[in-house]
Amino acid sequence: MKRTGSITDEPKALPAALNKLSRICRCPAPALLLGLFVLSAYAQQSDKKAFNFRGKVEQVNTATKQLTVHSEPIEGWMGEMTMGFAVDNDAVFNRVKVGDQITAKVYDGDFTLHDVQVVPAGNAGAAPGATTQGGLRLEDLEQMALASNPTVAQVQANMRVAAGLARQAGLYPNPTVGYYGDEIRGGFSRGGKQGGFISQTIVTGGKLRAARRVAELQANEVETSGQVQRQRILNNVRVSFYQVLGAQRLVEVRQNLAKLAADATQTSRQLGNVGQSDRPDILQAEVEQQQTNVSLRVAQQNLQASWRMLAAVAGKPALPLARLEGDLEAIPELSYEEWIATTLRESPEVKLAQQAIDRGEALLTQARKAVIPDLQVTGILVNDFTPLMETNPSRATGVMGGAQIGVQLPIFNRNQGNIAAAKGEVESAKQELERVKLQLQRDLASMFRDYDAARVTVQQYKTEMLPRAEEAYRLYQTNYQKMAAAYPQVLISQRTLFQLEADYIQALENAWENSLLIRGFGLMDGLSQPASPSMTGGTGSSVPRATAVQ
Fold first, then answer.
1. For the ranges 38-42, 358-362, 509-513, which has the lowest average pLDDT?
2. From 200, 244, 410, 498, which residue has the greatest number of CB atoms within 10 Å?
3. Strand ranges (DSSP E) for 161-250?
4. Per-residue buried b or exposed e for 509-520, using 16+ beta carbons within 10 Å of the residue's own CB
5. Contact 77/32 with Cβ under 8 angstroms?
6. Which DSSP helix (H) or strand (E) runs through 30?
7. Does the structure show a pLDDT above 50 at 541?
């Protein structure tokens, strides 16, 4: 029943209006029923608790007759929230604009703003968590996450670690210098030899080059792991963004449904007062109102939880709840054949598995080169104090030099164990590549199954079910206005419409989530620890992924 200004603003006219309705309608029951609905519009707020409302206007929608307001906490009713509200007077839309701080009065269970007043600019405090017109975009949150998520800094640190290890692996061994003494003041002549030596290991067989190659390939793996981590962060932010977007829209639907249930309860009580409604009808209406209020609270809590998860992935856990700007219905069209080829060609997991094979082969080469013996070269320079007994006993022998060159013979240890281990690692890495490809195909099939099902559901709701529900609601409403249908039928059809809208939102959210996972190669969890150089030594893949539903 539409609430007209004359009835709301002039309560004294209600008895006259009821008398007039009784004269128009020959049957007293319809006249009384219609009169009670008019009376309900005036008296509905009389038995509800009133609250003072304050918030900042974020969107003015004259088409739907709603104000989107970021409200301050209302003690005893609801917490800080951004949502759409109806208003009691359409003239409000002519004087309220985005950014205005407003005050109003609201009633328990009713999401209509009464007596809306604009707070002068000098007295308006900033609403907590208020955003600029239009709200946050997906691009804003992506940039925020890439700048603030701690795993991004971890990846950069890991890359510096890998680069340092690669540099260290190619350095030549240092020489050894020391003191040399022999027969020091020994014997009857009290002579002896004293001096120094220098020793150097000459690395042969390209072992340093092989070690440097292994370290460089390990650094490449860390870099690819960084790309994996970046994709995980972006996927997590995107999925969370559309979850919050769907939660926002669901809260609005639940608000309208709660208002509808409150109207039905009030009407049932009024009918009960005049004997036109039984006690079970009133109880049923009250139960339904309580259910819708619980559903609204759950939807609000789900919105808060979804926002907190999004803020955590973005690296800003204290980010206040704000309205998001996005098109929930613009679901991308994806082809399985196209994306299976793209995934196998461009997935960073495939690239990581291939790099593990390259590193395994480099390790095998290094193991084979390790058996080649290095040269151990030592030079000695001493001063021999032994006297020249035969030619000049009073004179010492003097400065003398010596050299040693040796190699380690690979007789017992030919590094055969490490060579066998390296061969096994190469084979394991090759099988890991095949496993990753099969896992990607399995997960992609599962994601496309859910994506296709969600798109079919969305299309069915959008083109068939919602239009029919809207038409049924309009027909019941028209028939009721012509006294050809009962008011409960209008309420039932309207409630059905709202429930379909809630299911439609859920289907949109499912379609977006699966499409984003498909385009993001199934990588998820932007807060998982990125791979470090110490974690890339094996062939197993530990990249967090979206779990495939069997």
1. 38-42
2. 244
3. 176-182, 193-202
4. bbbbbbbbbbbb
5. no
6. helix 28-43
7. no
Give the residue-averaged pLDDT of 523-542.
Answer: 71
Structure tokens at 30: 């319809």
Amino acid at 151: T
Of the candidates 243, 224, 222, the one whose C-alpha atom is nearest the C-alpha of residue 313 is: 243
Residues sharing a CB contact under 8 Å with residue 327, sequence separation 6 or more, in sequence order:
none
270/37 Cα distance (integer angstroms): 8
Q: With contact defined as beta carbons under 8 Å apart, do 64 and 78 qualify?
A: no
Give kind and range of the element (H or E) at residue 467: helix 466-481
- What pLDDT was estimated at residue 7? 34
Q: If pLDDT is split at 50, 70 and 90, which confidence band does 506 have?
A: very high
Best CA proximity match to 234, nearest among 159, 146, 311: 146
Nearest to 260 by CA among 439, 536, 1, 450: 1
Mention every residue, 6+ apart, whose C-beta is less than 8 A from residue 88.
3, 8, 112, 113, 114, 115, 116
Who's near 1: CB < 8 A, 6+ residues apart?
Answer: 37, 38, 40, 41
Q: How far apart are CA 344 and CA 436, in angstroms?
A: 9
Region 126-133 average pLDDT: 39
Q: Is the pLDDT of residue 130 over 60?
A: no
Which CATH code fits 145-171+219-366+420-535? Answer: 1.20.1600.10
> 306, 509 in Cβ contact below 8 A?
no
Q: Which residues contact 307 (CB under 8 A, 6 or more apart)?
A: 244, 247, 319, 321
> Phi and psi of 197, rounded to 5°?
-145, 160
Quick one: how far is CA 207 from the chain centroid? 45
Phi, psi of 379 (to 5 degrees): -115, 140
For 303, counting Cβ atoms within 10 Å of its Cβ (0-12 exposed, 13-18 middle, 19+ buried), the class is buried
Instruction: Write down the architecture of domain 44-134 according to CATH.
Output: Beta Barrel (2.40)
- C-alpha–C-alpha distance, residues 539 and 353, integer Å: 8
| Segment holding 492, helix H or strand E | helix 487-519
Tens of pLDDT, residue by residue over 345-378, are 999 999 999 999 999 999 999 999 999 999 999 9
The neighbouring-strand residues paired with 370 are none
Contact between 37 and 267 (Cβ < 8 Å)? yes
The pLDDT confidence band at residue 538, using thresholds 50, 70 and 90, is low
* Half-sphere CA count of 70, side-chain side, radius 13 A: 22
pLDDT higher than threshold 50 for residue 306: yes
Three-state secondary-structure class, residue 116? strand
Can you name the residues that pair with 106 across neighbouring β-strands? 51
Local structure of residue 110 (DSSP, 8 states) = E
Which of 236, 240, 235 has the alpha carbon at shortest distance from 520?
A: 235
Residue 21 contacts residue 34 (beta carbons within 8 Å): yes
H-helix or E-strand containing 357?
A: helix 348-369
Q: Residue ranges per domain, the chain?
A: 1-43, 44-134, 145-171+219-366+420-535, 176-202+373-407
